[in-house]
Amino acid sequence: MDRGWGFLIGLLGAVWLLSSGHGEQQPPETAAQRCFCQVSGYLDDCTCDVETIDRFNNYRLFPRLQKLLESDYFRYYKVNLKRPCPFWNDISQCGRRDCAVKPCQSDEVPDGIKSASYKYSEEANNLIEECEQAERLGAVDESLSEETQKAVLQWTKHDDSSDNFCEADDIQSPDAEYVDLLLNPERYTGYKGPDAWKIWNVIYEENCFKPQTIKRPLNPLASGQGKSEENTFYSWLEGLCVEKRAFYRLISGLHASINVHLSARYLLQETWLEKKWGHNITEFQQRFDGILTQGEGPRRLKNLYFLYLIELRALSKVLPFFERPDFQLFTGNKIQDEENKMLSFPLHFDENSFFAGDKKEAHKLKEDFRLHFRNISRIMDCVGCFKCRLWGKLQTQGLGTALKILFSEKLIANMPESGPSYEFHLTRQEIVSLFNAFGRISTSVKELENFRNLLQSIH
Ligand code: FAD
């Protein structure tokens, strides 16, 4: 079993410990405690308790990451929002104004980004143009040596579909457009009800390794649910191998994160002149209050922290590449490219937990993970609200990239200190989605602090 699994297992075990350890608590009293009572303590047997993550994220990482994501390299994301849903035909676009996505005009996107969709640095771009055969550039290959040239040629032959956890958009398609993420923020859109439930339902029911006989608690598309469903579901989940459990937790963490955002940037007031967006405490409580959600809410929040650690870990694995002197997060603007590099340095995270296991079994699990996750990325084309689809696609691609990194740890560890790597590479799209997806989770963790304070202030 490779080290990616090890990390998942270490984390999951610890998160699971956390959940069982808090099961016997007295019913909490205040509104804040009712959402956050179980969301504290250790997430890992190293230093990863919730409070440490909160401090690390909210005061050190979050402000830096936000600044990084405002830069040109990260704010423009190319996406095809017009791909047909591969699973069913009756998608009604909700038609709400808040679901609209405004794509960039071509003169709004910096030239360096347009010409460098698959490329990294100016030098490297030149090289690729010379070679004319290369489609993509590896994450560590920016030199002009002969060796590099060979590598570039090699990549053109490399079919990496077996490494990818997402069904990537064909960004060369005429339907693919650049979107300025800063101008199209993820927030409340009003996309809800059976259409939205159908998407979440298909994801959990068909793509999280769940047999049909096991019912999810509080599933709005199922009727007559009670405590026994909850118990059966959690004993089934506990009985799963840790990796499959991790899969469910990642999806649930992503779901929680999306719902934290829409509660934090809720449409509070609308006049003909302006719209006011802000925190909607009731919306947050309905989704995360322990009593209102029969204990589900705090579990969802813990899954959010789990997702946070997984994506952080993946980022920590690839950050060293971005520090290489010959690598630039290339936008064409030299000053900004250098600044990006400075900003991405201090995001390091220490890792501790490793596990060794059966290689064959790990391979099979990786394959299962990959196929299920690819399916989820395709389901995003069925989301009937363009804004939700945009952020759903970006975040699943980001998480898919994180998984690709974690499952490629051996390849990454064996990469040469400098010069090309034949085995592992990331496209610009993957880098942009990884950082932005993590930016979303980091923002959610920060928003939890805001909600905690707001809830405390009403009691
Ligand atoms: P839902 O969030 O729809 O959840 C359905 C059911 O799943 C719940 O009843 C519960 O049983 C279960 N559940 C809920 N949360 C979790 C969890 N974390 N883990 C496990 N199970 C859970 N809306 C916006 O306003 N803005 C957006 O940007 C946005 N993006 C979206 C992106 C995608 C891909 C999808 C599918 C939906 C998006 N939505 C967005 C809609 C939003 O997520 C909710 O579906 C909607 O607000 C309705 O919420 P709900 O309370 O009815 O339950």
Question: Kindly state the mean pLDDT as a whole number?
Answer: 75
Gross morphology is: globular
Question: What's the alpha carbon Rg, rounded to whole Å?
Answer: 22 Å
Strand order of the largest sheet: 1-2
Q: Count structural domains.
A: 1
Query: Which regions have little confidence, pLDDT < 50, spanning 5+ residues?
Result: 1-26, 117-161, 344-356
Order of helix and strand elements from N to C terminus:
HHHHEHHHEHHHEEHHHHHHH
**Main sheet, how many strands, which sense, barrel?**
2 strands, antiparallel
Share of helix, binned: 40-55%
Strand content: under 5%
The number of distinct helices, counting runs of at least 4 residues, comes to 17
Structural class: mainly alpha
Query: How many beta-strand runs?
Result: 4
First-residue to last-residue Cα separation:
49 Å
Bound molecules: flavin-adenine dinucleotide
Cofactor: FAD
Pfam families: ERO1
Membrane topology: Peripheral membrane protein
Keywords: Disulfide bond, Electron transport, Endoplasmic reticulum, FAD, Flavoprotein, Glycoprotein, Membrane, Oxidoreductase, Redox-active center, Signal, Transport
